[in-house]
Amino acid sequence: MSPIVQISRASLAFGPRTLWSGLDLDVEPGEFLAILGPNGSGKTSLLKVLLGLQPLSAGTWSVRSDRPVGYVPQQRAMQEALTLRGVDLVGLGLDGHRWGTGVRGLRERKRRVAEAIEAVGAGSYAKSPVGRLSGGEQQRLRVAQALVGEPDVLLCDEPLLSLDLAHQRAVSALIDARRRQAGTAVLFVTHELNPILSYVDRVLYLVDGRFRIGEPDDVMTSKTLSELYRTRIEVLRVGGQIHVAGAQIALCEDEPHHLDERVS
Amino acid sequence: MDKFFDFELTGQLLNLDFVQKALLAAAILALVAGLIGPLIVMRRMAFAVHGTSELAFTGAAGALLLGLGIEAGALAGAVIAALLLGLLGGRESDRDSVIGVILSFGLGLGVLFLWFYPGRAANKFGLLIGQAVTVDSTNLSVFAWAAAGVVVVLAVIYRPLLFASVDLAVAKARGVPVATLTVVFTVLVGVTTALGVRTVGSLLVLALLVTPAAAASRVATSPLVVTALSVLFAEIAAVGGIVLSLAPGAPSSAFVTGFAFVIYLGCRLIAFLRDRTGNRAEKDTRPSPREHDTTLVG
């Protein structure tokens, strides 16, 4: 099988600051790749490169798919008074980028939107104003919005943020089911590996321009993480979960933020 | 006061040709304003619309001075304003101040133009508060063509524009040209504003561009329903306002804005009553909607 996402000898720098360089990454169809690392290590920027929103400083990248890439953005609160329902939000994921009125094919559109909403279990609030839904409810609709276009590549930026444990499991399982059924490649930026550990094929761990790519068992070790962080890190496995202890622990940060994101 | 309810006089006036033209112009304006209004409300552009309409006034005043048609002048002023706002106010943080700066300068310039203008004072005042009954056949055809242009462009860009308005990050990720759409939309707003100068006046264009949509947003959530209600409210305000102003011979814009305001208050009341009964029914069955209101610092 040939890779659907290819990144070779890629580097990304903002002024004097190099986020990462010499990055080679191939992602196969159906593969589940977790992208981990502390804030500012360039996780979100990597997704932006693959969305075509951020040019590389050096190297090349390609996504080989005719269909638009699915994208679950980092959770942010929507305006409470926004006149938009869940069905409208999901519908925009299907054809929001198209010109024209789209009057033809409305029945098919309605069916696909309803299916996507049913699949994430958002049916009971899909007709409510999105601005009045909880963070978890909005996030389920976001996943439906990303999946409704049946993408070959799904990019997720902290999709589990602000979800409680049950919803974290539900959303992760949903994304996993999608890649198993349809062979969608998943690139999943997260600061919390455990909810998705059973699904993850490989991990890309970014720290201060250094990185490791490999299976979770190879990357998530005291030795590898200590090398990446250049300080002593202990990785403990407790009951099928991975816990990282050390001086600057990325996995315990609760407030992800973007250094490079501005609304224009 | 009894003139207000002189339906016989109103009926007679409605048969007059210039009154019918005024009503037709108002109906066309209300259609376009009602269509574009919900997007203005979603994009929080009410102040930008006000700034654009002040520049439409400047353009119209300049045209009056030069002896050109005020439609053309208003159109030029509004489109220049729209482009300036698009170019200078790109960053959300300084958009408001840029509008304030351009608005006040443009208004001052307009006042100067009017001072130079030797003609009738009523024409000058009319630019600010509207003179619906001065619409003639030439204006009307310009009007209709401009309105048709706005509607067609809006139909073509509607979905990506809505996407960019409500969901910027994902729209960008989908390849929607959000910056270009912002400029195109501002120009559409400029054209619509210019259309309003003769009918309701540059000071009061907001009554048709923002108030009906703001009212509709209170009582509906689906973008389609909000747009339909917004058009309906704008038509009631514009046509109803002019018809009511006929018998007393009062300025029509006072009635247009009054109608729009009453509709807005009514919609707020409906929303308030509905929320209260809704909350009572749903109490304790749902968590509070804002438990994760985290502000992400950029």
Sheet bearing the most strands of chain A, described? 6 strands, mixed
Protein chains sharing the most extensive interface: A-B, 49 and 45 residues
Instruction: Tell me the fraction of residues in β-strands of chain B, as a range.
Output: under 5%
Number of helices of chain A: 7
Mean pLDDT of chain A: 88
What does the oligomeric state look like here? heterodimer
What characteristic shape of chain A results from the CA principal axes?
globular
Largest sheet report of chain B? none
Order of helices and strands of chain B: HHHHHHHHHHHHH
- Radius of gyration of chain A over all CA atoms, rounded: 19 Å
Structural class of chain B: mainly alpha
Helical coverage of chain A, percent range: 25-40%
Q: Secondary-structure element order of chain A, as H and E? A: EEEHEEHHHEHEEEHHEE
Main sheet: strand order of chain A: 5-6-7-3-8-9
Low-confidence stretches of chain A: 250-264
CATH class of chain B: Mainly Alpha
Count of alpha and pi helical runs of chain B: 13
- How many E strands of chain B? 0
Question: Could you explain how this protein is built, in words?
Answer:
The complex is a heterodimer of chains A (264) and B (298). Chain A has 264 residues and is of the alpha/beta class. Chain A contains 7 helices and 11 strands. In chain A, the strands form 3 sheets. A 6-stranded mixed beta sheet of chain A has the order 5-6-7-3-8-9, with helices on both faces. Chain A has a 3-stranded antiparallel beta sheet with strand order 2-1-4, covered by helices on one side. Chain A has a two-stranded antiparallel sheet with strand order 10-11. In chain A, helix 2 packs parallel to helix 4 and helix 3 crosses helix 4. The model of chain A is unreliable at 250-264 (pLDDT under 50). The relative contact order of chain B is 0.16. With 298 residues, chain B is mainly alpha-helical. Chain B has a single domain, classed as ABC transporter involved in vitamin B12 uptake, BtuC (Orthogonal Bundle). Chain B has 13 helices and no strands. Chain B has helices spanning 7-14, 17-42, 46-66, 70-88, 95-116, 121-129, 137-166, 168-173, 178-199, 206-209, 211-219, 223-246, 252-282.
